[in-house]
Amino acid sequence: MNRRDTLITIEDLKQGSDEALHTVYVANRQKFINFAKRYNLSNDEVLDVYQDAYIAFYENVMNGKITKFTSSISTYIISIGKFMIFNALKQKKKTTNDNYDFLLEKNDNELIENIEIDATLLSQEQKLLYEHYSNLGKKCIELLDLFYYRGYSIEDILKHTHYNSENVIKSTKSRCLKNLKERIFNHG
Amino acid sequence: MDKEDLLYRYFSNTLNKDESKVLERLLKTDMEFKAQFEFENDLKRVAKEKQRNDLKNKLQSFEDKLAEKRSYTAPYFLKIAASILLLISTIWFVYTNFGGVNYDKLYASNFETYPNTAYSITRDNTINSIERQAFVAYETGNYQLAIEKFNQEEVKDYFYFYKAQSYLNLNDFKTSKLLFSDIIDNDYPYSVESKWYLSLIAIKQKDKNSAIKYLEDLININTYKVEEAKMLLEQIH
């Protein structure tokens, strides 16, 4: 395990600190680049996959699928990265070798089988929703994010934010959803 | 348990087996419920995408910083020379960007007080509530009194906008800017209109970048002052 990220715990990452995020990013970057050299990808493509793999790793820490590190962080990111390269190559048919299974070894499969790697693209309706959601006020985005993305209950939100009561949270959430629907309805 | 509670429990992963069955049944039989379920499910996906994009931008900024570090570090005297050059270019930029536009005139020709569309004052309205007094003061241009009355009454979401308007009419740009920003942050009524007034305040304060940001937002939202925003954007560019 890299010396710099051995000190970073799951809790540090879960707290969402930029410092932890940055430390882990920098500590594993070169290792990933070295690993990805063999796949005939451009530098930009490698960095793109590294960032996507890093995000998938981070999401799984945040959603509780990774609760303790059974391998080093770099092993997680590289296994996820392999899976992503495997899919990307399959789609692009960039190499002449049609058997991509060699990319994923047994250890990788074991490591990633319990985690979630969501690579689906947004549907047209979701794209429209995304546009209007992104234009909501920051307090609405913050509240909807806590509820729908982080899966916080109303009690959790009360504990972690400045809201005074559960009723205020519920009514604010309803108002935000109503606003969002109205914006979609009015602007198609 | 009502349908809203059922959805709430589904999205906070706290449904028990019986409730799951009720949910499944409703999804098959109640189209309105199904539509709401799908809306919230899409919202869950969209919230994830937003987080993902924000995170990707953050990682890209780390990457940019790494690239900066790797780039050539200039000797001290070159840094001084570069600073002087930057200062000269900034002066030139400010002069060419702000020198050619008469910001006060643009503000004056675009600013109009927003009419009272929130509270109906009728002649036979005998209940002289504080809210009524506030809006009477607002409509008659007595903005100081309007603010005092708004502050005396229990706050309603739309008060913020009319208070911001009142401060703006008193040329208290700082307070009105804070109130308009708060309206946008909280999604209170008139949040789109607030962007228009924030763009005007930015113009008045010769803050070109903020003005551009608010005007572009208005054009994207496409509901209020769209043509005016396009024209204003052209004029300040």
SSE inventory with pairings:
The complex is a heterodimer of chains A (188) and B (237).
Chain A lengths: L9 H5 L3 H19 L6 H20 L10 H20 L13 H7 L11 H11 L3 H12 L4 H7 L5 H22 L1
Chain B lengths: L2 H9 L5 H13 L1 H40 L5 H24 L3 H8 L19 H10 L3 H10 L6 H11 L3 H14 L4 H14 L3 H14 L4 H11 L1
Helix pairs in contact in B: 2-3, 5-10, 6-7, 7-8, 8-9, 9-10, 10-11, 11-12
Q: Major sheet of chain A: size, sense and barrel closure?
A: none
Number of helices of chain B: 12
Kindly provide the radius of gyration of chain A, computed on alpha-carbon positions and rounded to a whole number of angstroms: 20 Å
**How large is the count of helical segments of chain A?**
9
How much strand of chain A?
Answer: under 5%
Characterize the overall form of chain B: flat
DSSP summary, beta strand count of chain A: 0
Major β-sheet of chain B, in short?
A: none
Largest interface: A-B, 46 and 36 residues
Helix content of chain B: over 70%
**Percentage of residues assigned to helices of chain A:** 55-70%
Poorly predicted residue ranges of chain A:
none
At a glance:
The complex is a heterodimer of chains A (188) and B (237). Chain A is mostly helical and 188 residues long. Chain A has helices at residues 10-14, 18-36, 43-62, 73-92, 106-112, 124-134, 138-149, 154-160, 166-187.
